[in-house]
Structures are given as structure tokens and as C-alpha cells.
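Support request, please re-run this one:
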Amino acid sequence: MQPYFFPYIGYFQLINEVDKFVFYDDVQFINKGWINRNRILVNGKPNYLTVSLNKASQNKEIKQICIIDNRHELLKKIEFAYKKAPQFKRAFPVIEDVLKFNTTQISELSMYSVTAISKYLGLNTIFALSSLDFADTKEDGRTERIISICNKSNANTYINPIGGTELYSRKEFHDHQVTLKFINPQKTEYKQFKNIFVSNLSIIDVIMFNSVNEIQQLLSKYSLC
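Re-run finished. Output below.
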């Protein structure tokens, strides 16, 4: 998966399900995607939380994109939005640690947002980096590269988000002794102050309103197909 900035809970459901999770940091950057932004709850409505970037372009790889540092403003925005949330005192230091992480690259910041939250939630998944651990597969085609990474990792199963059903063929993976599965998240709701529930927000929202034990239960709300 591309490294996303404080991604939604479905991203962490995938992390929770697998033994090894590979960050794709040497693939094309996508404008207006989730690499440098996500959404939080502000006054009962979804609001973007965006890390400013320097000359971001889809002609560059994710790991080549640098930050224009506005993280102090983002931290203040999160504090304002969630200071009355039930888990604020426990969750905010984790977010603060991420936003103060010493890096100028969005790939490193987004990856750290994922690994720090995973540690907070007690997930034991092994993380790997495509540009570092699987650089020799970079010139492979999309499916061929995934299969190569699976083979190099001694993995017999590859799990992809449900949207991948339109991209990947089970037969092609099966022909290379790899089982292809898709993770399908169930509807997830929890109490957000007194407003009507707003779905598909950043994991920031989840950890502000739920204890770690409660989140671990939410992480199991999916099916594999």
C-alpha cells in the first residue's frame, strides 16, 4: 500500500490481518489522494487535514516529495477539534509525536503516522519498504511485482483492499502459487460527541473517541473474500 497520512480504520484492519505490510514508497505520487492528507471532525463536519508539499507532482515518486512544514498549524487544528473528546489526553501525545517527527519527506511522515498508531493499538505486524527491501522488483509490472514481493517474503497469500477486485486476477496469482484475497470492511460506527455519525474519517477520529480495547474490536469488523 502507498503510505497514507493517518489513514482511515480500514487501512489498519488490513495491517491487523497480515503478517507483513509493505509500504510502496517508490511508486507514482497521486495528487489529491491520501498520501499527505486525511479528514477529521470539525464542528460536526468532515474537514481536511493537509500537509503542505513542495512542488508535488505525479511525475515524481512518493519518496521524492518534500514537505512545506505546516505541522504546527495541523497540531493546533487537531487539538481544537478534539480537546473535549473522551480519549484526548491519551491519544493526543501519539499524534503530537508523529507531527513532530524529524523528517522533510512526506513518505517518512506518513509511514510514521501508520507505524506509531499501529504501536499504540498493539499491532505486531512487520513493516517493510519497497524502495529498501524490494528495490530489485521495481521494474516489474503491477501484478508481477506483487507476486515477486510475495515470493521473496515466502508468503503464500496476498491480501488487498476490496477495490482491488477490478485490478487483479485470482488465477494469475494462483498460477504463481499465491492465494489472492480481498478484505471487505463492515460498517463501523461509534459515538462522536452528540452529532450524527460521520464515517470514513482519519484514524485520529477513531482514537479520540474509543479506547484501545474498543478499537481492537472495531479492527475485527471485516470479512475476507
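Residues 30 and 198 are 25 Å apart (CA to CA). DSSP finds nine helices and nine strands in the chain.
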